[in-house]
Amino acid sequence: MLSDSNIRLQEKLEHLILHGLACEWETALWVLEPDERGLLRKPLISIRNLSSKWGYWSGRQKELCLSRDLVLNHAWDSVREVLLHEIAHQYAEQVLGACTERPHGPAFQQACRRLRANPDACGHSKPLRERLANETMDPTDKILRRIQKLLSLAQSCNPYEAESAMLKAHDLIAKYNINLCTEDTKRSYCSVFAGKPALRHRREEYHLAHLLQDYYFVHGLWVSTYVLDKGRMGHALEISGTPRNIRMAGYVYDFVKNYIHSQWESFNLDKRLNRYRRTDFAVGIIEGFRSKLKAKPEKISIRHDQTALVATEDPLLKAYVAYKYPHTVTHRRNVYNQDETVWNAGIKAGKKLVISKGISEKSHTVKLLA
User: Are 247 and 214 in contact (CB under 8 A)?
Assistant: First the structure.
């Protein structure tokens, strides 16, 4: 049983979450045409103890309800997925007039397509991140098994052996994904957040996003989303791709962030440099690691199958992202007062970075309330 102080804490948190759900409801409608948005009336949004489903839409009560377990114990991108599913029920009723149709009938499926919602994010289905974490590897897939083994070898104490194993694993990751494209293999896509939503993101986050997109076969976009601890809308990096590529890219994201933290703690131990210099150092690490990956094809240029390792854009992933986000804008960021000494120290540290383990690691679900 919760103490009085914990009850007050949970009430305050739920108040913030309800505000966030209202903000996300309004943001979700921007994919629609203006006349369609005008037909959707803002619902009563609630949080309740639900034992058999993650949420529901009640046309009679004009209420959109989400499970307390979902909003308190699962990541915000999983919450958004269920919220969008319930908005699709509202759309099917209020815009398409499907009041008497079965819950997941043709009108609802049409609503999901219009809102870019997942029709399966309901009932007893597992939240998004759990589905990704629990996905099992095809035991007959020899390439993925070799990638696993190489990433384990990348933990070697011998730096040359570790780096060689990581680069060979990277070659196989590229080969695996290029085969998917060239052989037109059937594949599905999904999208999750990498890192936490924030009002502002530091420069190294953008460099890391580009690294994932350029070398790990995912597509990154900065999307509008609610920042719980600030009570306002901000942005988060959302990566889209096949479930396996998302797991790999998510692991690389966390691995690089942890490496930056440990290297900065050591580098700044007796210098007491500020956060701007930390950003210079972090960007240097990412670009140093990038230079190692970029140089890799030159080392294998004598191979007869080198053309198979030329990265190509996945047209189906490109179409998926274009469908999900039909309206995007591009911003350029200028860099001022970068400390070249600190940046070069980061470059040096980045060239020593070796990604190990990875493909079998499970991502941790972010809990909003301990």
Answer: no
